[in-house]
């Protein structure tokens, strides 16, 4: 199997994992509970549910962003630019790609971008 094909399979399986995680998060969101609006919960429960909802939304946002990055990584494999830093054009070390396969930047660019 070619390296590209291997990476693609890995990225595809990561996407599937994210879909499962997103579904689980949505299911655990108290706001998704159809009885939520009418359950006349105490203020305490409302606050707890609000917090849970916000945490879940934040987690879903992170996962959605990752999903999007993986899609870009898959397109970059087809274009032949996968594994190359989008900012400085240097080759991203294999070790880093093994850790974060969807990364589009080398460590130094990533650090520069956070600043
Ligand atoms: Zn770079």
From TrEMBL:
Signal peptide positions (record): none
InterPro entries found in the cross-reference section: Znf_DskA_TraR (IPR000962)
PROSITE patterns (alphabetical): ZF_DKSA_2
Domain Zinc finger DksA/TraR C4-type: 80-112
Pfam families: zf-dskA_traR
UniProt keyword annotation of Transport present: no
First and last residues of each zinc finger (dksA C4-type): 85-109
Keywords: Metal-binding, Zinc, Zinc-finger
Presence of keyword Zinc-finger: yes
Gene Ontology MF terms: zinc ion binding
Protein's UniProt name: Zinc finger DksA/TraR C4-type domain-containing protein
Native organism taxonomy: Bacteria, Candidatus Roizmaniibacteriota
